């Protein structure tokens, strides 16, 4: 009876559906990767033995490699998204070009990251892998800057629209509810991007991110991963 209750429980069905998607598996692996990154640093700072730290360090590296392989080919999707965003006519120009910049930044990052995987896995050795990795992180950083700018601009527009509705009759309450919902979604995306930008920023040791440490970056990556898991979970509902 207990087995049947678990087998047919809607949460279990939802979990299986979540794990059956590439997005769901990637977000879950990312969450575990960054939790391990944080714990690896935390345990090291607390003076724990290398034997205790080693499993978390291995998870961080191996899950990172696994996710690199899972992302191979995803750059094509980003290039297509950039093209579609550029062709969009009925969109605010600021949001349009921010979307183009975001997708091109991600496309450049994913392209170079896939090439870097060949070197990291030992399939094909590259002359200067550090330079390739740095360039990939610059693309990622640029894409995140465009995404953050887009979110900030969108929140400003939502606030302006919300203020104008407050001066009108209650008949606009449905639109106001939609604005609140949109505002919440944009704020989540903004928080995720702010957390994520610490990762390439720290790797590049520029723009003031050199003052961070691996533990902070691991914690920031954990927060953005939780938000990513929640979004992927909702998509498979």
Written account of the structure:
- With 237 residues, the protein is an all-alpha fold.
- It has a domain at 1-70 and 213-237.
- The chain is 82% helix and 0% strand.
- The chain is built from 10 helices and no strands.
- The chain has helices spanning 2-7, 10-19, 22-45, 50-71, 74-87, 93-120, 129-166, 173-196, 198-204, 214-235.
- α4 (50-71) crosses α6, α6 runs antiparallel to α7 and α7 runs antiparallel to α9 (198-204).
- The two termini are 26 Å apart.
- The model has no long low-confidence stretch (mean pLDDT 91).
Question: In a few lines, what is going on in this structure?
Answer:
This protein is 82% helix and 0% strand.
Largest sheet: none
What integer is the average pLDDT? 91
Rg: 21 Å
- What fraction strand? under 5%
Net shape? globular
> What separation lies between the terminal Cα atoms?
26 Å
Order of helices and strands: HHHHHHHHHH
Helix count equals 10
What's the assembly state of these chains?
A: single chain
- Taking pLDDT < 50 over at least 5 consecutive residues as the criterion, the unreliable ranges are none
> What class do helices, strands and sheet pairing give?
mainly alpha
Strand segment count: 0
The helical percent reads over 70%
Features:
mainly alpha; 10 helices; 0% strand; globular; peroxisome biogenesis; Peroxisomal membrane protein PMP27; membrane; PEX11; peroxisome
